[in-house]
Amino acid sequence: MRRRLLLLAATTVSLALIAFLVPLSLLVTVLAADRATADALVRAQSLVPVVAQADRAGLELAAEQAGSAGGLPITIFLPDGTPLGAPATVSDAVRLGFTGRSLTAEAAGGREIVVAVGGRPGGTAVVRTFVSQAQLRAGVTRSWLILALVGGGLLAIALAVADRLSRSLTRPIAEVARASHRLAAGELTARAAAGGPPEVVEVATALNHLADRIRVLLAQEREAVADLSHRLRTPLTVLRLEADGLPPGGQAARVSAAVEEMERMVTQVIKEARRSREEAAGSCDAATVVAGRLDHWSMLARDQGRAVGRELAGSPLPVALAEETLATCVDALLENVFAHTPDGVAFDVRLARRDGGGAELVITDQGPGFPHTGLPARGVSAGRSTGLGLDIARRAAERSGGSLDLGTGPDGGARVRMMLGPPRR
User: Fold this and answer.
1) Helix (H, G, I), strand (E, B) or coil at 138
2) Measured torsion, CA atoms of residues 215, 217, 222, 223, in degrees rounded to the nearest 10
3) Burial (CB count <10 Å: 0-12, 13-18, 19+), residue 153
4) Which pLDDT does position 281 carry in this prediction?
5) Of 29, 237, 323, 419, which has the fewest CB atoms closer than 10 Å, so is most exposed?
6) How crowded is the C-beta side of 280, counted as CA atoms within 13 Å?
7) Taking residues 207-216, what's their average pLDDT?
8) pTM, whole model, 2 decimals?
9) How far is the C-alpha of 247 from the C-alpha of 295, rounded, in Å?
10) What CA dihedral angle connects 100, 106, 109 and 113, to 10 degrees?
11) Residues facing 221 on adjacent strands
12) Which of 387, 421, 390 lies closest to 405, judged by CA?
C-alpha cells in the first residue's frame, strides 16, 4: 500500500510538473530570442540619426563602434548598395529595406534585423544587424537547468510528504496485522494500538474487543473443564473404595489399575485447564528443569529397580516454554514410562542443544514399545493410555516452535523425542 501511494504521488506530481515546466521552458526560449532581437533592434535604431547625416568615414566609424560595443555584426548599406562596417551581402531583407521597410527576418544560422533610414542623398540607406542562434538562446540552458532543479525539488518534497502520509496510514494497519498474528499464535494478551485514520481505529478497536471476548470465553471454558474434572473425583473415590473391597486377584488389580489411570488423567486435565496461555508462554533453562525432574523421578526408579541413563547438556539451555510448563511435560513423559512398563525396565533421558537454538529431549525405554508410532488422539485409549500426557507435551512443543514424535528405541522400546524452540526475541 505504501509503495502504491508513493507511485500515485510520483505520477500525479510528475504529470503536473510536465504540464507546468514544458510550456514554461518553451516560454523561456521565446523570451530569450525576443530579448536578443530587441537588443539588436535597439542598437540598429541607435544608428539612424548618424546614418541620416554622417559622411562615409563617420558611418564606418559608427558601424564599427556599435558592433564592437554590442557584440553584434552591424552593416550599413548606402543607397547604392555599398556596405560599410561588418561584411555582409545584400539579402532579400536588405532589398526590402531599400524600399523603406524595416523588418526582422529569419536567416540561415540566426535572425536578421533590417532598419530603413531615409533622408540621405541618393535614396534610402539600410542598417542591418545579425543575431546568431547562440545569441538567440543565450541563458536558455541555464534557465532550463534551474527549472529542472525546481521540478526535481518539488517532486522530492511531494514524495517526502507522500511517504510521511503513507506511513501514517500503513503503520496502524501493520500494527493491527501484527496484533492479529500474535493472537493467532496464541498470545491472548496482544492488543492493537488504536491510531491512524478513523476506519483503522475502528478495526483495531473491534479486534481488541474480539480478543477480550475470546480470552473471557477461554477462561470460562477452562473453568468449566476444571470444575467438571473436580466433580469426577468423587465417583472415582467411591470406585477406588469399591475396588479395595474386591477379593484379591486379577480382577481387583485390573480395576485398581484402571482407577489409577483415570485419576492421573483427571489430574492432568485439571492442571492443563488451570494453566492459562500466559503461564504457558515464557522461557526457561531446559537443562535445569529436566535435571530437576529427572532427580525427582530417579527416586521412584530406584525403588522399582530401574536403571536410569542420563545425558544432559550443560546449563544454560534456554527454550521457549515456561518452567512450570516444561516440568509438566517432562513429568507426563516420564510418568508414561513408569505407567506402561514393568518394574525393573531401564530408561534413558538425553537432552541436547539444537542447531539454531532450542533443545532436543529424547526419552527411550527398554519396554515393549508403542503399538504404533503415531501420536494417539486425545482421550483415545491405546492399551491403558488415554494419550492425554503425550497430547499436552505435543501442544507445548508446538507452542515453543518445535514438535513431538514417537518412535522405536535401539533396544526395541519406546522413544519419545520432544523438539523445543528457542525463546522468541
Assistant:
1) coil
2) 110
3) exposed
4) 58
5) 237
6) 22
7) 87
8) 0.49
9) 37
10) 30
11) none
12) 390
Q: String of b and e for 355-382 (b: at least 16 CB within 10 Å)?
A: eeebbbbbbbbbbebbeeeebbeeeeeb
CA atoms of 424 and 236, how far apart (whole Å): 42
pLDDT at position 229 is 65
Taken in order of first residue, the domains within the chain and their CATH numbers are: 2-140 (3.30.450.20), 279-420 (3.30.565.10)
Provide the pLDDT for residue 111: 92
What gap in Å lies between CA 114 and CA 243, rounded to an integer?
A: 132
**Whole-angstrom distance, CA of residue 54 vs CA of residue 25:** 44
Checking if the pLDDT of 343 tops 60, the result is yes
Strand order in the sheet with 83-85: 83-85, 74-77, 123-132, 110-120, 103-107
d(CA 321, CA 324): 8
pLDDT in tens, 95-134: 999 888 999 999 888 999 999 998 778 789 999 999 999 9
What is the full DSSP assignment across 87-111? -----HHHHHHHTT--EEEEETTEE
Q: What is the arithmetic mean of pLDDT over 217-242?
A: 72
- Grid cell of 151 as nine digits: 521540478
Confidence of residue 230 (pLDDT cuts 50, 70, 90): low
Read off the C-alpha cell for 204. Answer: 483495531
C-alpha dist (Å) from residue 190 to 123, 193, 208, 271, 421: 101, 10, 8, 24, 21
Cell 508513493 belongs to 6
**Cα gap 233→231, rounded to integer Å:** 5
d(CA 358, CA 25): 66
Q: Is there a contact between 329 and 393 (Cβ–Cβ < 8 Å)?
A: yes
User: What digits encode the pLDDT tens for the residues 380-390?
Assistant: 444 444 466 78
More confident residue, 355 or 256: 355
